[in-house]
Write a structure and sequence with these properties.
Blueprint lengths: L2 E5 L6 H12 L3 E5 L4 E6 L2 E6 L2 E2 L5 E4 L6 H13 L8 H8 L1 H10 L7 E4 L5 H7 L5 E5 L8 E4 L2 H9 L7 E5 L7 E8 L2 E9 L14 E4 L4 H13 L4 E9 L2 E8 L5 H7 L3 H19 L1
Parallel strand pairs: 1-2, 1-6
Antiparallel strand pairs: 3-4, 4-5, 7-10, 8-9, 8-10, 11-12, 11-14, 12-13, 14-15
Helix pairs in contact: 1-9, 2-3
């Protein structure tokens, strides 16, 4: 029996409970650790982790579920576990890369993976440049920290874009992205575990809404990917070093475009829609990582 630490701030969340159950079903001992209450110790005798006032027993592996507002703290904790040679389903570097939306798009593009045309916007930028690059209006304006569709706007004209630029601050930079009209408010969330597609769901925006996120009232259906769509999703996750990922894909006239990648994707929607045991796949991936580590020792 191996001890698997699930790093989470929400012990009662569906995703946490599903992973906890999957660990039990596969004969492991799951332990829930609130990553926001961990203290990292560095000294002459190496690295230690204290949790709720006591030194944390080092688990055989960790499954991080790091919230967007705790990216840097979560990455620091994962890095500590990596230093202690504990296998993780989410490497610290991959988490940081995926959460930086512009950086992740840069890496995808560098690997030859198509994304919507994107312009990093700064106050004082020539609006004509932006409008020309994103093929006019409407276009999408996103903050770099947007999640669940929040911080995402559909801009319809020059005046609205000008207001967005003028309201920008250095503390909350954003980028402008082309609007893919032919996607008709639909995208596909592809769930990748260990380089394989283990589930996919089509998300459809509610009437009058352009965002397909379930948190914004979108509906979800089981999806069947084309071989090209499947290959793009697998390549996208690999480009960011993610063994577990939610890859969001838009269908466009020029083929599938990767909208963004989630390093800690929720499990409830995808499992209920597809009927797939995604949590079981993640725990088996954890088993594989632990076995590979033991063979290397």
């Amino acid at each position: 029996m191996m001890e698997i630490a699930i790093l989470t701030r929400g012990p009662g969340l569906y995703s946490t409970q599903s992973l906890y159950k999957a660990c039990h079903e596969q004969g492991h001992k799951p332990v829930l650790v609130d990553y926001s209450r961990c203290s990292l110790i560095l000294g002459h005798d190496g690295a230690k982790i204290f949790y709720q006032g006591n030194q944390l027993s080092i688990p055989d592996g960790i499954i991080p579920r790091i919230g967007a507002t705790f990216t840097q703290e979560g990455a620091a904790l994962i890095r500590h576990f990596e230093w202690l040679k504990v296998p993780t389903t989410l490497p610290s570097r991959a988490l940081v890369q995926a959460r930086d939306k512009l950086h992740s798009l840069q890496r995808l593009t560098k690997k030859g993976i198509d994304v919507p045309v994107t312009v990093m916007a700064e106050p004082g930028v020539d609006l004509r440049l932006i409008e020309e690059q994103v093929s006019g209006f409407p276009c999408i304006v996103k903050t770099l920290e947007s999640t669940h569709g929040l911080g995402v706007k559909l801009v319809h004209n020059h005046l609205e874009l000008k207001q967005c630029i003028e309201n920008a601050t250095k503390e909350e930079p954003f980028f402008v992205q082309e609007f893919i009209a032919e996607s008709k408010g639909e995208d596909v969330r592809v769930f990748i575990v260990d380089g394989q597609v283990v589930g996919a769901m089509k998300r459809v925006a509610k009437a009058g809404e352009f965002r397909s996120n379930l948190h914004q009232g979108g509906m979800a259906y089981n999806a069947r990917l084309t071989p090209l769509g499947e290959a793009v999703a697998i390549r996208a996750a690999a480009a960011l070093g993610l063994g577990v990922a939610g890859v969001d894909i838009l269908e466009s006239n020029r083929g599938p475009l990767v909208l963004e990648i989630n390093a800690s994707p929720g499990l409830e929607g995808i499992q209920k829609v597809t009927g797939q045991d995604i949590s079981g796949h993640i725990v088996r991936f954890m088993d594989k990582l632990i076995q590979e580590f033991e063979e290397e020792e």
